[in-house]
Specification:
about 45% helix, Rossmann fold, five-stranded mixed beta sheet, six-stranded antiparallel beta sheet, Heat Shock Protein 90, about 725 residues, 26 strands, alpha+beta
């Protein structure tokens, strides 16, 4: 019913109720905005905490792996010589102990029978430190000679010796925790960590841990164990030095599955925490479980919240109040002009138009807020791909691009740290790829087009005419070197442009690349710092431009691994030139023709007609992969773990399986093996989707029977390419 058709009496009655309707609508809308902003903020906080937790867990597992390697190297020392002197033992471990200050002691513990006991005690006494004997501690904590038992495990070779001389001769088998751990290590022939122990000789009285590995001679007989004594707090503090935690998250670590105070072995930033647990994870520490409890701090909440939910709600309330005032004024105006019979029709039409305009503004506002609530930005790169394909306002596009740039920057930093750790461990391995050089060079600028246009820079590629058509080298590493250098030039250049030159190198089968920019340049005294890890030209550059300081170090190392070198010339405030060359292998004419034929392959379709089973336990990742598959026209079934995936394959037929690796109930590796064993040749291709990026992790997936490995975060284009490649299998 039109308002114009209402009688003055009815309009007066409605005018009394209208404020109540408007207030009720404002409260509902403000509440929706507040809830949406709160969920958005919570998603950002959870993503930040999860990123830091994942990073620390990788560092922790790497450190534990290094500790295991140290014990194995000690066993190698004893295996290589029939008689290892204590001086040789000291020399062998001195550098290791200096590099790992959290190690309180490294020990060689022989397995000594009752018959051998006296000769061992005699040898221990001959060292000149007084009369020694195998001892244990009584219930009262007093040092007493050991009781007769079939076998002993005395502290025999220990470094550093004088800091741990009180432990010399102590029988580990006399302590129940240590004895049970030794017996389990020998029975399983694996590394075993003890439960939380008190380090008596450490003045800080921090929690400690023993790592034990059994040693077997060539005949397969256990002759002792190697043992490391670790100061847990010092070890974790060392891992956290790289600002993994900073003041953004608090962390508590418990020994075992329990989170009781008696099992607490480490805590950081507890006073800064806001009291809300954001994430609980378990880590396998040499057959023991550590439980990590993460919480956001008030600092993190402050840093991530550009506008708090309360402020968003206040803004929404103000807008609602303005719209309500406008509606009220319009309605009152209509009431007054009803007395003007001659002008009623004209005024009513104007009032109706004004009312429609107000209603449209209100509807647009509601639609915008609803969109914000339904599609909160959660910082996940996969969700960014989906959000970019939806209808977004200009402000939202800026926010999404900022998150995307931050996500890409974070992944680059993580990749840099992983690459740097591989370089330090001498584990970088190059691969052979046949490269269409012309196409490769022309595509180098694609990742930088957006920022180059945004900064108004020019970018030119200059290639010699007589370059080879195809070469064989590591495509990924070559692109990484060039991308690092171009990225630096783009970052430090505000005016002018960048040029890439590609030439034949100084010797046969070499290529030379040079990137020249008109950027800020580098002072001569700072050039020598460029290739030092975690360094930049000066602190002001770090504050202004950011960066991990690893890119040039990694690039130079990769150049050297590829048979070349990287050099730099720079003039302050004029620009810089980075030049490098690499060796390549020639490609036969037949291989070149094969590459040219493959370039004519049909393009990847936008829609893939497949029936896909997805096994993923994380709810956010489930949402991301579901939206991606749905947008590609894929029919999919979603399950939460490997056991459910196995059951689905028995009930339904699928063209492809996307399998997460780390899941509760049954992991992806086990599920893959069981599916292949059950279906045999009828088993569909299984694609791993995993956050584990190390080579051994990929090998485990492939060895289990998986056909391909996709690394998280998965971009939609990458997923499309993989699905397209398997649609005919």
């Amino acid at each position: 019913m039109s308002l114009i058709a209402l009688s003055p009496h009815k309009m007066v009655s409605m005018n009394k109720k209208l404020p109540l309707y408007l207030i009720f609508t404002c409260l509902i809308l403000t509440t929706l905005v507040f809830l949406g902003a709160s969920r958005h903020q919570k998603g950002l906080i959870e993503n930040e905490v999860e990123s830091r937790a994942t990073f620390l867990e990788h560092l922790l597992l790497s450190t534990l792996k290094a500790n295991e390697e140290i014990l194995l190297s000690m066993e190698g020392l004893f295996a290589s010589s029939e008689l290892v002197t204590r001086e040789e033992f000291n020399t062998f471990l001195t550098l290791t102990l200096e590099r790992h200050p959290y190690i309180q002691a490294l020990e060689w513990i022989p397995k000594v029978s009752l018959k051998q006991k006296r000769s061992f005690e005699k040898e221990m006494s001959s060292l000149g430190h007084g009369k020694f004997f195998f001892y244990e501690k009584s219930i009262e904590g007093e040092i007493v000679p050991v009781e007769d038992r079939p076998f002993y495990f005395p502290v025999y070779y220990v470094e550093p010796f004088f800091e741990n001389i009180k432990a010399f001769g102590f029988d580990l088998a006399s302590n129940e925790k240590r004895r049970l751990t030794i017996e389990k290590a020998i029975a399983t022939k694996t590394f075993q960590a003890t439960p939380k122990i008190n380090l008596v000789q450490d003045r800080t009285s921090q929690a400690g841990m023993l790592l034990i590995h059994p040693y077997f001679d060539k005949a397969g007989i256990n002759t002792g164990v190697t043992l490391g004594v670790y100061k847990v707090t010092d070890m974790l503090n060392m891992l956290l030095r790289e600002s993994i935690i900073s003041k953004h998250v608090s962390l508590m670590i418990y020994d075992g599955d329990s989170t009781s105070a008696v099992d607490l072995i480490y805590q950081a930033n507890l006073a800064e925490g806001n009291g809300n647990t954001a994430l609980i994870r378990s880590v396998d520490v040499s057959s023991r479980t550590w439980t990590l409890v993460w919480s956001p701090t008030h600092t993190l909440i402050t840093d991530l919240a550009a506008l708090s939910p309360t402020l968003w709600a206040a803004i929404a309330l103000i807008i609602c109040a303005l719209i309500s005032t406008l509606i009220n004024l319009t309605f009152n105006q209509r009431l007054k002009i009803t007395k003007e019979v001659d002008l009623r029709t004209k005024i009513a039409e104007e009032a109706a138009t004004s009312a429609n305009t107000s209603n449209k503004a209100k509807s647009d506002f509601l639609a915008s807020m609803s969109h914000e609530i339904r599609t909160p930005m959660n910082g996940i790169i996969g969700m960014i791909d989906i959000l970019k394909e939806t209808s977004l306002t200009k402000d939202q596009q800026v926010y999404i691009n900022s998150i995307d740039h931050s996500g890409i920057a974070l992944m680059e930093i993580i990749h840099d740290i992983l690459d740097f750790s591989k370089i330090e461990a001498n584990k970088i391995e190059l691969e052979d790829h046949v490269i269409n050089l012309h196409e490769f060079v022309n595509n180098l600028s694609l990742p930088f087009v957006s920022i180059i246009l945004e900064k108004g820079l020019s970018f030119n590629i200059n290639s010699e005419d007589n370059l080879p058509d195809c070469i064989s080298c590591d495509r990924t590493r070559l692109r990484q070197i060039i991308s690092n250098l171009i990225s630096n030039s783009v970052k430090f250049t505000e005016h002018g442009g960048i040029e890439l030159f590609v030439r034949n190198g100084p010797s046969q089968n070499t290529l030379e690349f040079e990137i020249i920019d008109t950027g800020i340049g580098i002072r001569e005294e700072n050039l020598e710092k460029l290739f030092i890890p975690f360094s930049q030209a000066d602190n002001s550059i770090t504050r202004r431009f950011g960066g991990s300081g690893l890119g040039l170090t990694i690039s130079k190392t990769l150049c050297e691994l590829m048979g070349g070198d990287l050099s730099v010339k720079s003039t302050y405030e004029e620009g810089s030139s980075f030049k490098f060359f690499i060796h390549y292998r020639q490609v036969s004419i037949e291989k070149v023709n094969e590459i040219n034929m493959s370039d004519k392959a049909l393009p990847v379709p936008d829609k893939i007609n497949l029936k896909v089973l997805v096994a993923e336990d994380n709810s956010i990742n489930q949402k991301v992969i579901s939206l991606m598959l749905k947008s590609l026209g894929v029919e999919y079934t979603l399950v939460d773990n490997g056991l459910q995936a196995l059951e689905q394959t028995k009930l339904n037929s699928f063209d492809l399986i996307l399998m997460d690796i780390q899941m509760p109930v049954m992991d992806g590796i086990t599920a893959t093996e069981k599916i292949i064993s059950s279906l045999k040749e009828k088993s569909p291709p299984i694609i791993a989707i995993t956050a584990n990026v190390f080579k051994e992790d990929r090998k485990r997936c492939l060895d289990a029977g998986m056909s391909y490995v996709l690394s998280k975060p998965v971009r939609k284009k990458e997923l499309l390419d993989v699905l397209a490649s398997f649609r005919h299998h």
